[in-house]
Amino acid sequence: MSALIAPSILSADFMNLESELRRIADADFAHVDVMDNHFVPNLTLGLPVFERLTKVSPVPVDAHLMIEDPDRWAPAYAEAGAASVTFHAEAARAPVRLARELRRLGSRAGVALRPATPVEPFLDLLAEVDMILVMTVEPGFGGQSFIEGTLPKIRRARRAIGESGLDVWVQVDGGISRDTIDRAADAGANVFVAGSAVYGADDASAEIATLRDLASVHLH
Ligand code: DX5
Ligand code: ZN
């Protein structure tokens, strides 16, 4: 199994999203951060733009919804063509029902945890989701430093998944770069979001390959 790389277009040029997506045609997913200015103090894009992104993206789109009331809004992102829809555990009222709805609509379902949210209360969700996203920065902005204190949580999530026998991915998001990706992989992550590291590189394609190689040698 090789590591999956999902560049975040949060660090792309929003005036040229189609060509910016072409720069990451070698990636496994395009990670799209949807922020509503309520769940996080930042505002990005919503459904009409998202739907167009899924149409022009050369790779499957991974939606990360940093929004209030995902129970109400998330299914539309699956209908709009997302390959994967991740909602925040802190915001969902009925996470089991929501995850089932996302899967019924043909998307993978993910549940995200802020750095301070423990994983243990959500382990019952493992059978209902395809991915756990352990945030490795406080959600809201790109270009922040990786929080080392999240490594034990990545480890606990990976251990619980191993014990469950389920095939659930562990995604990390925030501060992932050549300097940090090996530690996240070693702790048990297998899907790596990288915004500034990929879009800040002169050759995004080469950066994706480097990150994938660095992570792959540490994969569990
Ligand atoms: C932050 C977003 C991330 C962000 C990561 O809230 O969820 O996806 O784009 O950016 P970097 O990789 O620059 O930390
Ligand atoms: Zn994200």
From TrEMBL:
Coiled coil: none annotated. One of its GO terms (biological process) is pentose catabolic process. The active site is at residues 33, 173. This is Ribulose-phosphate 3-epimerase. The keyword Zinc applies. It comes from the Bacteria. It holds the Pfam family Ribul_P_3_epim. A divalent metal cation binds at residues 31, 33, 64, 173. Its cofactor is Fe(2+); Zn(2+); Co(2+); a divalent metal cation. Substrate binds at residues 8, 64, 140-143, 173-175, 195-196.
